[in-house]
Amino acid sequence: MDVTEIPRKDEEDFDLKKIQTTPDHDDVFGEITEEGPNYRNVGLVGTVILMMKTQIGLGVLSIPTAFDALGMVPGVICLCVIAFIMTWTNYVIGTFKLKHREVYSIDDAGAIMFGHAGRAVLAIAFCLYWIFVVGSGILGLSIGLNAVSKHGTCTAVFTAVAAIVGFAFSSVRTLGRITWLAWVGLPCILVAVMTVTIAVSFQDRPPNAPQDTAVWVSDFKVVASPSFTKAITAISSLVFAYSGTPGFFAIVSEMRNPRKYTTALVWCQSGVTAVYITVGCIVYYYCGSYVSSPALGSAGGEVKKIAYGFALPGLIVTTTICSHIPAKYIFVHLLRGTRHINKNTPTHWITWLSCTFCIAVIAWIIASTVPVFDSLVSLIGALLGPLMSFQPMGCMWLYDNWSRREKRFWLVKTCWSGFIVLLGTFLMVAGTYGSIVSIMEAYAASGGSAAFSCGDNSNSS
């Protein structure tokens, strides 16, 4: 049998080219047979698309408002710094997975480093993170449905419809079989944001700007002077825009050839950063402080309907993939080591559908109780984004390389990893405080959305 082999003589200097993929056996999924799903069936291009779709979809819609809080130049600088850090932490995932083939998700890495306590903390955080992301996806879908239908029915109905659609599509059992959805969803969301980006450059003024002046000039700021709360909330939104990181464990686990992970990562991060900078700068430049949240409403009128019409498939795919990842995580950990994980038994199907259904229900409740898009995005980015994308990856590098003091630049890399851990902790504490304050202000403000509201949530600014 052709089993994946990794030389064990030196874990630091293993040769990625010697790694062989296997169609028959996997350290996570066990024997891959024709009697069950093929979990190892994602190619290089499919990996890039899945990676990009876990990030582009919701995060991009909050970037112009983050630039409004920080200013154009500080916003771009913060975005690039976060992109660089996230690329490094994502790279660590690939190397750690190849050295520890039994790892399927971030809690497996936590168990290797910190035992049962590490597994428990990261398992809970992992599930909560993705459920909150699904909640923001459901909220985004409800906003889109309201925009396209001109508030055709109660918003609570739209959130329920979004949750049902997410449950249905996420119940497809393997990432390989939903890769085609990412091929549909990614272009749709890109067309939507580019439509708005082009439209705002031709409009006289954004729909939220004063309409009683003959000439309107954008009030964008090159450098803003935000309060600490606004600044850290904006940075948390930027962190969220890149925090598809925990999903990369599942993606690399289902790749046909995991040694191509780094190549896929470079293509993904380059494309994502280019899109974020382009959309964020242009939309904020033309709309200034009157940019809408989500950004798709910034052009208003018919363009808003068209943009959300294109975006709806992309938002559905985002909700699908982000629902699939935590459901698959729970499913694998419930059935791992049993024959039910890769055979079409009643236990297999009941467990799988129960996982996807529970994710959809909990996410629907979150979307209904925190119905302010920017506030929900920044809360996710602050409370759970760093814990999923910063501290564990710094610890993973230290775990694998602490004893390699003879290696070049060991001290520099060690200090960098420690810095990542400290930075993640700061962002988590400070960002969560700022996000909670923002949510409280949104509820207190006149016109703020209420939990389980029937009001139109597509006109937020």
UniProtKB/TrEMBL annotation:
Pfam entry (one): Aa_trans
Transmembrane among keywords: yes
Residue ranges of the TM segments: 42-63, 69-93, 120-143, 149-169, 181-202, 231-252, 264-286, 306-327, 348-367, 379-399, 411-433
The name this protein goes by in its record: Amino acid transporter transmembrane domain-containing protein
Family: Belongs to the amino acid/polyamine transporter 2 family.
GO MF, one annotated term: L-amino acid transmembrane transporter activity
Magnesium keyword on record: no
Domain Amino acid transporter transmembrane: 47-436
Compartmental location: Membrane
Keywords: Membrane, Transmembrane, Transmembrane helix
GO cellular component, one term: membrane
Gene3D superfamilies according to UniProt: Amino acid/polyamine transporter I (1.20.1740.10)
Organism expressing this protein natively: Penicillium argentinense
Membrane-topology descriptor: Multi-pass membrane protein
InterPro entries cross-referenced by the UniProt entry: AA_transpt_TM
